[in-house]
Amino acid sequence: MSVKEKKRGRPSQSQSRLTAELIILSARKLMLENRKVPSIRQIAGVLGVDAMAIYHYFSNKSALLEAVTISLIETIYEPKAGGKWQDELKLLCKSYLELLGTHPGLLEILLSMQSFGPAQLFNQRLMSVLAPLQLPQAAFEQARNLLVDYIHGVALAMQCNPDVISSDCINGPLCLIFSALEDRR
Amino acid sequence: MSVKEKKRGRPSQSQSRLTAELIILSARKLMLENRKVPSIRQIAGVLGVDAMAIYHYFSNKSALLEAVTISLIETIYEPKAGGKWQDELKLLCKSYLELLGTHPGLLEILLSMQSFGPAQLFNQRLMSVLAPLQLPQAAFEQARNLLVDYIHGVALAMQCNPDVISSDCINGPLCLIFSALEDRR
DNA sequence: AACTATTTTTCTACAATGTAGAATAATAGT
DNA sequence: ACTATTATTCTACATTGTAGAAAAATAGTT
Questions:
Q1: pLDDT tens digits, residue range A50-98?
Q2: How far is B46 from chain A (nearest CA, A)?
Q3: What's the number of domains chain B is made of?
Q4: A169 contact residues in B (CB cutoff 8 A)
Q5: What is the CATH number of the domain that holds B153?
Q6: Which of A17, A69, B3, B159 could potentially form a cystine with B104 if both were Cys, beta carbons 3.0 to 4.6 Å apart?
């Protein structure tokens, strides 16, 4: 049962090279499968390397998780220009919610990040969806804050109670927001 | 510098007795001061006992934190019967939000609890506030879900970015909800 | 070709955490 | 006086993030 200890030091180039992208992908996969933020050792495990190898590509765990977050947030729904704003908004929100709900821990990382990049992405897509409504700036911001924080709240509830809450639970409250939005138009 | 190692075994009754309530209070204090969920060893430290002594009163850390949560949640604002519903609602929400915002980790514990007791408490107070509106059941539930999850979202943002977000940030979105509520009356 | 510097990796080690299990001492019950 | 129960400390273990050093392959320089 020799577990084949790896040789120390830089491997010869024949071996499949470790990259930041590979690490991010493994972390994403583990996060989704295990429904929690993976440990560095777990990530290293599936990559077949020592845990400390990860630290050559990321200065610490937090940096790795931020990269994972950026990678994940780019997968949310990209609104189409043609559709009804209500439909597009619902699709966008559900996609965001499902991403957060299926990746427990992601939300906390996202909210703790200094870089506003990832948070901005949802904001931009929301703006493009709500553009046809031509809301005044203040009304848009109110609605955005309400929407974003509401979704975050639901996502947190989903990850604390997996299998109990479905992403459909936002339908009702979303309608409430819709009607409030139409009033302010 | 004798650090005065404690004698092993049950202490004689003269010593100030450890109780579940004392443990809960110490945990609350640490949670508030350090802005995070304390470790068992920290709690035991301020109580001057060994970490394992805690386990005589709580079967595990989770049970202790649930007790802390129940204790904390009872401190939220109790609505007065006389006031305007908008004012009372705002006070209730802010009180809840500030509790969650100043006790990072509390929200996750609350949402993970099987016992619905603590979550119900806010629900009840909300019902008493909104009673004068005589909303249909479905509309009340929509509004409650929106409100609760929105507050949770804001609370999470507050604990991830301490000192950046104030509890006043809910004013705008709250007004949005108010107007939606009045429409459904 | 020979040296040196750099890059990429593993190894060892440490502190912090939750908590199981055993030892121990005070008290309560008989 | 003996036994059982209760309240406590002690020791130990697995898991975590990660610092620091050693090692091996590669790249750069003369």
A1: 999 999 999 999 999 999 999 999 999 999 988 899 999 999 999 999 9
A2: 29
A3: 2
A4: 145
A5: 1.10.357.10
A6: B159
